[in-house]
Amino acid sequence: EYSMGKAKQNTATKFVATEADAILDLCFHSKQEMEDLIAPFSNAREGVTSEQRLGHNFPLDSAMTVPPITPTVIEMQEYFKQAIKRGMRYLIAYVSGDWHTRSHEQRHALFFVNAKYKADVERLWSEMSDKDQKKVTSLLSTMGYDPHVHIDEFQAYLFTEKSNLFGLKTLPRDPLK
Between 44 and 57, where is the model more confident? Predict the structure, then answer.
């Protein structure tokens, strides 16, 4: 069984930590605030995009490899160090009220922190026909995703978007259900 954990609210910082799965869940007041604080880390990991991201996700330890070139990066790295000390391993970020993006980002986190879920998703992927895998990878490549994240993006979109997104005749079963 999979769990996104019990959320705890710290109203002073608008910080939610799902401790059970080691997910640092950051909810921002605005897209600009999220971009200012989190985009430098996503950009370092995934590259700069032409559009603002709707949400962010990455392993917290990867944030420590970003060169501390601005006061914001230094401040956020200190914040992330404290989260890592509390057992957090993965970050998701989204704008308050955008529960769809939160759900998508949670799937990325679950794929990273829950080995059973990841294995189930990888099994679903391996059971798909080559033709269906090519449909998925073609769309994800068109969307700008690097091939090394295709399976992770596939599961996040498959289980949070309309069922016809990838044009698959037979949809894999959601391992969470």
Answer: 57
Q: Span 139-151, mean pLDDT? A: 89
Residue pair 65/44 in contact (Cβ under 8 Å)? The answer is yes
Nearest-Å Rg of the Cα atoms of the chain is 16
State how far the Cα of 2 lies from the Cα of 64, in Å rounded to an integer. 28
Contact 95, 101 (CB under 8 A): yes
CA distances from 100 to 97, 105, 163 (A): 9, 9, 15
C-alpha–C-alpha distance, residues 121 and 150, integer Å: 12
Sign of CA dihedral 168, 171, 175, 177: positive
Amino acid residing at 121: V
Chain centroid, CA 80 distance in Å: 16
Strands 9-10 and 23-28, sheet pairing: unpaired
- Lookup: tokens for 144: 């700008």
Q: Is the dihedral of CA 111, 60, 79, 47 positive or negative?
A: negative
Which residue carries 């080691």 as its tokens?
Answer: 22
Q: What is the pLDDT of residues 78-113, one digit of tens each?
A: 999 999 998 899 999 999 999 999 999 999 999 999
Among residues 17, 14, 18, the alpha carbon closest in space to that of 5 is found at 18
Q: How far apart are CA 21 and CA 38, in angstroms?
A: 21
